[in-house]
Amino acid sequence: MEKLIKYCSEFGIDLDDKAIERFEKYMDQVLKWNEKINLTSITDRDEFIIKHFCDSLTVLGVIDFEEEAEVIDIGTGAGFPAIPLKIARPDLKITMLDSLNKRLSFISNEVLPALDLKCVTIHGRAEDLSKTKEHREAYDYAVSRAVANMSSLSEYCLPFVKVGGTFIAMKGRDWKEEVNNAENAVMTLGGEFSDLLTFELPDGSSRGIVIVDKILKCPSKYPRRGVKINKNPL
Length: 234
Description:
The protein has a single domain, classed as Rossmann fold (3-Layer(aba) Sandwich). 38% of the residues lie in helices and 22% in strands. The chain is built from ten helices and seven strands. Helix 2 packs antiparallel against helix 5 (101-115) and helix 3 packs across helix 4 (82-88).
């Protein structure tokens, strides 16, 4: 946890004892349940802290979330980056969306009660949920970590973001070509690239964060069905 504390301090993020305790409990829960349901391929605790916790919290180094901002994590999986963000910033109103219900059941029934945190979990597909009145352009921020290529990911995520809000794509090391190929998709969906940033994690591996501002309403015909999104990116 020393690496996590030091890494966060470089971004001006101070983790108190309560936060560290929650991170420990969260890691214990994921590693315990990983034997029953596939949550992560990373089982070494030091690597877990770097690749999951440090990586997730990198967002706080580039985005100054306003108090009680509405954030949706699309394709949350085992809860990354949503739960690390909630631990570090308990004021954030976080919704976690995933198409695999057993992961969300794990989060709702095991993780959130153990950590004494409140988040909303939704089982469903992004392309369906973003067409509903309740969720269409309803969030200040949409964030997604290693879910799809940038063109497809933009179509999944930008319809959730209100005009004036922000879409945050957390990418691996080979992300720059994705961004070049996604310019048309981002523009078509009402977005505009704001910043492209590279970070180095404590183990020396690099990560990219792509910031997209929502400047116009998303045309009503988007998103398309998932098959079309993936086979024919905008």
